[in-house]
Amino acid sequence: MREKIILVCSECLSRNYATTKNKQISKERLELNKHCPKCGKHTLHKESK
């Protein structure tokens, strides 16, 4: 079953993206390089709690 997660910018801590992931397959937290509209550059986005 896929669950909704929110990605948070590691620099400005704004919540920019919402996505889903299969928690049975990937148990660790998701980390992606995505564009932050608030910072205006590509930063590391981590899965929030």
TrEMBL record:
Single GO biological process annotation from the record: translation
Gene Ontology CC terms: cytoplasm; ribonucleoprotein complex; ribosome
The UniProt record lists the keyword Transmembrane: no
Keywords: Ribonucleoprotein, Ribosomal protein
Signal peptide extent: none
Family annotation (InterPro entries): Ribosomal_bL33, Ribosomal_bL33_sf, Ribosomal_zn-bd
Top-rank lineage group of the source organism: Bacteria
UniProt GO molecular function: structural constituent of ribosome
Cross-referenced PANTHER family: 50S RIBOSOMAL PROTEIN L33, CHLOROPLASTIC, LARGE RIBOSOMAL SUBUNIT PROTEIN BL33C
HAMAP family: Ribosomal_bL33
Family of this protein: Belongs to the bacterial ribosomal protein bL33 family.
Entry protein name: Large ribosomal subunit protein bL33
Species of the source: Acholeplasma hippikon
